[in-house]
Amino acid sequence: MSETVSTNEEKKLPLDGRRAIPPNNSNDEENEVPEMEAFGLIPRGFNPRDYLRVEDIYMFKEPHEINKQEHHTDKYYNPKLIVRRGQPFQIQIYFNRPYRPETDRFWLEYLMGRYPQQNKGTYIPIPVDNVLKPGQWGAKIIHRENNSIRLSIMSSSTCIIGKFRLYVAVLTPFGILRTHRNSATDTYILFNPWCQLDAVYLDDEKEREEYVLNDVGVVFHGNVEDIKSRSWSYGQFEENVLDACLFLMDKAELELSGRGNPIKICRVASAVINSRDDNGVIAGSWNNTYDYGVAPSAWTGSVDILLEYYSSKQPVRYGQCWVFAGVFNTFLRCLGIPARLITNYSSAHDNNANLRLDFFLDGEGKVDTRLTKDSVWNYHCWNEAWMTRPDLPVGFGGWQVVDGTPQETSDGMYRCGPASVQAIKHGHVCFQFDAPFVYAEVNSDIFYTKMEKNGTQVIESIDTTHIGQLIVTKEVGGDGMTDITGEYKFREGSDEERLALETAVMYGVKKQSIQDTAYQPQTDVEMDFQAQKAVLGNDFKVTITFRNKSRNSYTATTYLSGNIVFYTGVTKREFKKHSFSAKLEPSSSSSFDIVIKSSEYMSDLLEQASFHFFVTARINETGKILAVQKATILEIPTLRIKTKGELVAGKEMSVIVEFTNPLKQTLENVTLRLEGPGVLRTIKKQFGRIPMNSTLTWEVKCIPMRPGLRKLIASLNSDALRHVYGELNVQIQKP
């Protein structure tokens, strides 16, 4: 009777006329697996207990045992077995009697998802053999003792990534007997950068330790003249983070059969990391109001964001580029894909991808904000993931750009990449995915164009070196910075650079040639602009310097426009206008200082305390215009962190965070966050207000779990002041 019921249920599968079974895109769902699969009618005297029967399976899944040690998965806070593909692991099976190879036959079955199929890699039967072939599924007995056998199991180096269910099947004359469903034997299989046959193989051990196993990183921000850095906790080994990362692939509805391919995983993840068009992980907000959410600058790491999304299934508010990149990096490292976070200083957001950012000037030579649509981000963060690219010609594997920040759509969704860094450098932007967009982010030119009264456009000045001046990432094995500009572009002005540009244009990157337009710049006068380094809340000065290299006397009508901007280069308000006439003597330099008062900028200051200055000067004798723009950032005070008590794993210690308010005003709605992977889970505390010049002290007690070098990261957030960070390296001793 029970059999007929189950076949009726089988018939009720939701068929859509196009496929025999529904899509299999959830790692979480399961199917019922029969414990007795009869071959026909079962004779009356049959007793399953007469045959070989599995009594227990031992998985060697503790962090100190062989599997997690050899597979570099001992850091995951997860009680189940976690191994990497293409590398053998061991399990021990206990039977009800000694195993007799002459007569007994058993095999293993790994299943994933609701509709396991062998040809899709979601149902994997593994017979026991005498030999293991590299990179292919197989199992062999390596030890027999009493009623138990120990197996060495090899997984395929291309198998899908995720959580498999394990069954042991025993053959009897009348049917197959299986172990019952036991979640304790579930096995996670991840990418393996240590395995030469894996698509993500990385051959340098120091790089693997950094790009796969390091759970803390550094985000470089600020601007190219004033580089700032802060730590970010990736936390890819923390409790439930692995499940949250697998859930992202379910959310993106990536077919289980496609989950062995790092190219596909990166592409769908770059869409699901942001909430645009698919209700993904993080909602972006660039407007300085973060009601009903957390300000992007307040996050100290990825764990809170991923776990909140995993439980609520709703986008977490709010993120900006480094938050998208930080969470994306956690996702990639957690699954075993080598990844690093990249910062591109002076990053072009070119709305029509023509390798040219247009800044329009009005009749007087001031920038016209109504007409100017393109923007230069002070910096923009994205990720690189390491993999082979069998879908591209040879030579384009290695680092690939992936970007989870929603900027432009790609194939109808907000996503970007993977795009080969090598292809971007050489201008081969025809190769998928989204290479032209990334090429423009690091290679555009800035055109200053004057709109004449009759509607014609006159190009007054071109800046070919401002965009993509510096591209950096955290150094391997330290907190310093590595300059990787040379991996994205050839030296400015070199023959190779011109050739790469011509190649990119040939492959369809739009570029207007300067020959099409009447452009004769003033070449005998140079203008430079410098801003003094200043602390938030203080006055500072800026200096405009002219060098007249000619034998003529000139006068220059000069305009300075100071704007409070988002780090994306978009203006919130012009807070300073200043114009003056400069007399330029022949063959000499002259400098002019302008003082910026704190009272002029404090009321409207945005969280990253960044300004953007445009300076334009019209040489009255020739009518030509010189133009320069520069971003500058104020110094923001930091948090101080110290510890009290012994720093020993398993013993209580105290962490003390201190902050002194440097502003000439009271800070309202102050929130502190503190976290440290392996030391303490994120803790938040609200403080109502901090009066000017007064100091806040916060003490947190915790019990560190893991010995070794660990990092504590804290952030402070308030209405008037954001992007306040502090960090401390602590050496936790073994008990």
From TrEMBL:
PANTHER family xref list:
COAGULATION FACTOR XIII A CHAIN (PTHR11590:SF42), PROTEIN-GLUTAMINE GAMMA-GLUTAMYLTRANSFERASE (PTHR11590)
Keyword list (alphabetical) reads: Acetylation, Acyltransferase, Blood coagulation, Calcium, Cytoplasm, Hemostasis, Metal-binding, Secreted, Transferase, Zymogen
Active site (record annotation): C321, H380, D403
What superkingdom heads the lineage?
A: Eukaryota
For this UniProt entry, the molecular function terms from Gene Ontology, in alphabetical order, are: metal ion binding; protein-glutamine gamma-glutamyltransferase activity
State if Acetylation is listed as a keyword. yes
Q: What does this protein do?
A: Factor XIII is activated by thrombin and calcium ion to a transglutaminase that catalyzes the formation of gamma-glutamyl-epsilon-lysine cross-links between fibrin chains, thus stabilizing the fibrin clot. Also cross-link alpha-2-plasmin inhibitor, or fibronectin, to the alpha chains of fibrin.
Say which family it is in: Belongs to the transglutaminase superfamily. Transglutaminase family.
Ranges for the region named Disordered are 1-32
Q: Name its GO BP terms in alphabetical order.
A: blood coagulation, fibrin clot formation
Keyword flag Acyltransferase: yes
Domain (Transglutaminase-like) spans: 313-406
* Name recorded for this polypeptide: Coagulation factor XIII A chain
